[in-house]
């Protein structure tokens, strides 16, 4: 096979990646391929790399490096022990060898899925909290408004503060999750990559804040009674919920899920944008 080929072999629940360097040998970031202890970049036999599971090729149109240049880049990192499953894994390594870019399709897809599922989970948890904590228990109009007022009372506010509390907390949690996984700093990375991640980490918190403010603004603007009075909040939540085929309860889910989705989308999106501009 051609020198510098990007090989992909299946594992349980993910794919493992390596660079073919000739003579039946592969350089890969061993990572967690052999167990729970992260291993270094190393050169192994093709048989050891595949573990009897076969392999396929990942092709790169317009690759920055080919052939011997890819092999040299792969071997230049042998012995490195800065593996991180979310931010410096075997696929990141291969993409760097071929395109000079720390890129992982598995992580990109996983980040999108985590943001969406985290937002849905946060919204439904908020709905449950609202239903259980109000003076009028349940998801009637009175139950939702009293539940939001109870949540807002934690910070000395009312129903509108409740929307902020129920959205901001999970939004900040998502920002922290993204920052400590896919955007985590790593001394093995080049400076452009580290700078891009630093921008993304700041943007996750900005995204959570913007999502929270945006949700409150949407509630204020969309109701039949404008503003943040009790009637304005109730009608605004109903209008937001109506966009997904629901009522006030659905509006609570959407409004409190938005900061979570925004934290992941803004942070990771800006990180990718900065990388693109740097290239």
What does this 3D model show about the protein?
With 279 residues, this protein is an alpha+beta fold. It is elongated and about 75 Å long. It contains 9 helices and 5 strands; from the N terminus they run ββββαβαααααααα. Helix 2 packs across helix 3, helix 4 runs antiparallel to helix 6 and helix 8 (230-242) crosses helix 9. It has a 5-stranded antiparallel sheet with strand order 4-3-2-1-5. Strand 1 and strand 2 (14-22) form a beta hairpin.
Reported for the largest beta sheet, the result is:
5 strands, antiparallel
Radius of gyration: 24 Å
Annotation, overall tally of beta strands: 5
Structural class: alpha+beta
- What general form does the structure show? elongated
Tell me roughly what share of residues is in helical segments: 55-70%
Instruction: Quote the average pLDDT.
Output: 91
Major β-sheet strand ordering: 4-3-2-1-5
| Weakly predicted, low-confidence segments | none
N/C terminus separation:
30 Å
Give the amount of beta strand, in percent: 5-15%
Provide a count of the helices. 9
SSE run = EEEEHEHHHHHHHH
Topology overview:
Blueprint: E1 6-11, E2 14-22, E3 25-31, E4 39-45, H1 46-50, E5 56-58, H2 68-76, H3 90-99, H4 105-133, H5 141-153, H6 159-179, H7 191-222, H8 230-242, H9 248-278
Antiparallel strand pairs: 1-2, 1-5, 2-3, 3-4
Top keywords for this entry?
279 residues, single chain, 5 strands, five-stranded antiparallel sheet
Produce a short descriptive summary.
With 279 residues, this protein is of the alpha+beta class. The chain has 9 helices and 5 strands; from the N terminus they run ββββαβαααααααα.
